[in-house]
Amino acid sequence: MLRTAVGARSSAELMQEFTSKHLDLRGEKLNFEGVDGRDVYNITAPFEDEGEWVIAGRVEARDTEYSDVMFFTQKGDVWVPRPNTRCFHNMQDPFRTRIHGELVFGGVEVWPNPVHPDKIDFRTVFYRGKNINDLRLFAVGPQFMKDIRLVELPDGRIGVFTRPHGDIWGRGQIGYTTIDHLDDLTPRVITQARILHGLFTPDEWGGANELHILKNGLIGVLGHIACYSEEMNKHYRAMVFVFDPKTFETSPIKIIATRDNFQQVRAAKNPQLQDVLFSGGLVRLGDGRAVLYTGVNDAEAHRIVIPDPFDEYEQE
């Protein structure tokens, strides 16, 4: 039986719980070359494409948010652009999964607001194919919604996590629905997803970044929880929770890493982003540990070895 949450806890409470564990966690910066001095951050975990391990990352100059998503392979101690591999222009925050035998890849598409060109409009876009170079667009999300993620369920259906915000949803909630086929993914389906209540306090928000099917059929959700300080600085922490798609129950959120676990990070291009982790992906090692891949301060990409945050839910 899933140990369920009894109500939302604030970031401050979750931080106190995390720091009380006194974990000695230290991240490692990933070095990228061949990007003309641009920042690489908000990466995926490594995944296999045509027999080669690759990472997708957001590549961005310091004076813009119109970034590219590029694919990198490791050469010695550095990651370099993969030759003969497509690049996605005007895309942020890549993600990937596999559904029904296909690679499903996506990110946040950005473009200038037609009325206020200095502002950015955005939506989540989804591609599918046999491999990276075969990817083709098959779905788009509602305008102004990020953090839409998909996962293949044990029965073959597809779980869809959403992140509505504004109006009754505040700064951002997490929703969930299911579809039978990738072609069923539409803005209407996404906006009608049922909200998972009790995850965030009214003045905080969060989203799903990557999904893991656990041995017992529960869904392990890697995500982020965020809040503003009194000075209106943003604070993003890496978090997880577990979701039962049959009962709609969720476990309590727990923080798994914070900015303090990463040292010697390049300064954020915006002072409001000095305390930001954006979970990209989690590789479970099978020995009680996992490797978290994350963006730091909207400036760099790091990884860190942590206790596997989903182990305890597979023992219940």
Overall outline: globular
Stretches where pLDDT is under 50 for at least 5 consecutive residues are none
**CATH-assigned homologous superfamily:** Glycosyl hydrolase domain, family 43
* Helical content band: under 10%
InterPro entries: Glyco_hydro_beta-prop_sf, MPT-1-like_LmxM
Protein name: DUF1861 family protein
Pfam families: DUF1861 (PF08950)
Give a description of the structure.
- With 316 residues, the protein is mainly β.
- It has a single domain (11-314), classed as Tachylectin-2, Chain A (5 Propeller).
- Helix content is 6%, strand content 46%.
- The chain has helices at residues 11-19, 187-191, 311-314; strands spanning 28-29, 31-32, 39-41, 47-49, 52-60, 68-75, 78-81, 88-89, 91-99, 102-112, 120-129, 136-140, 149-152, 158-162, 175-179, 194-195, 205-213, 219-228, 234-244, 249-250, 254-257, 275-284, 289-296, 300-307.
- The radius of gyration is 18 Å and the shape is globular.
- The protein starts with 10 loop residues before the first helix and ends with a helix.
- The model has no long low-confidence stretch (mean pLDDT 95).
List the helices and strands and how they pair.
Elements (H helix, E strand, L loop, with lengths): L10 H9 L8 E2 L1 E2 L6 E3 L5 E3 L2 E9 L7 E8 L2 E4 L6 E2 L1 E9 L2 E11 L7 E10 L6 E5 L8 E4 L5 E5 L12 E5 L7 H5 L2 E2 L9 E9 L5 E10 L5 E11 L4 E2 L3 E4 L17 E10 L4 E8 L3 E8 L3 H4 L2
Parallel strand pairs: 2-7, 19-22
Antiparallel strand pairs: 1-24, 3-5, 4-5, 5-6, 6-7, 6-8, 9-10, 10-11, 11-12, 13-14, 14-15, 15-16, 17-18, 18-19, 19-20, 19-21, 22-23, 23-24
Protein name: DUF1861 family protein
Organism: Alicyclobacillus cellulosilyticus
InterPro entries: Glyco_hydro_beta-prop_sf, MPT-1-like_LmxM
